[in-house]
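Researcher: Before we compare anything, I want clean individual predictions. No alignment, no superposition, just each chain on its own. First chain goes here; please echo the sequence and then give the structure tokens.
Model: Echoing the first chain and its structure:
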Amino acid sequence: MRIWARTPITAILLLLGTLLSASFALAEDYSVDFGADTVRGRDAGTLHCRFGYICDAKMESLGLIVSVDTSRADPPSAHIRLNGGDPGCCYFAGAAGSMTIDPHNSLYRVPLFRGAGARGSLFIENERMGTLYLRFHLP
């Protein structure tokens, strides 16, 4: 009789373990190595992300937050944003507040600027403050 009492519990635990391991496998669809070399210093880390969700990480020593949103669309794209503590930080080329890249390229070296955001068709030349490095690891 003990064997029958254990069998349903064992089956439930086995099913629960299978479901949990499957959800953990799906919880991390890709990763991104990132780093910044700026006038404030250097910092780096790795993001573990899911497709279709925004994931972000703070570079504590620089006071910067990098955000990545990657879709599985064909072709795939990654939307990148970098935020800092001061209102004049952080812009990409052309005074853009964000950028879209192809995550299949091996390594991105993206110039970072401090100043003002783009407004209409005005030409804005901001002060270069460093470089953002990105490397995607896709399945």
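Researcher: Okay. Second chain, same rules.
Model: Second chain and its structure:
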Amino acid sequence: MMRGVGEVRQKLKQAQYRHVKRILRDRFPAGEDWPKEEVEQIKDEYREFFAASPIHIIAKDFPDVAALMWVLEEQPDQPLAVNGTLVGRMDGVMLWADSDMEADRARVIIDRIVEAATESDSEPEITLPVPVPVRKSWWQRLFG
């Protein structure tokens, strides 16, 4: 079912509100009066953050908000992969790097892996960088 622009815009407002509310609850103790000036300052900071930050920065901490903004094309001049360079595809999945230099490095690593996998007479020693653990999103933890 396709949603209208108004419905998506409302979902975006709800998501932003929900995140700011969670941030306020984390910062201030429950059951006490919250300082109005600080609360308004935090709300203003996040309004500005959502309005002015690049979509890839928003996506780091608020992937649902970034996805809704992307759907609405709130920031149409910003590509989803900032300065992205396509490395290649593996089993239908596109691989991206942040720069041309990193893309070239990734291609070399992939070529080494493919070369090692196709050699049958000996097992060559391949030195690969240690992968950095990636934190799963709430979506991946829920359905992963």
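Researcher: What stands out in the second chain?
Model: The chain has a mean pLDDT of 80. Additionally, Residues 85-131 form one domain.
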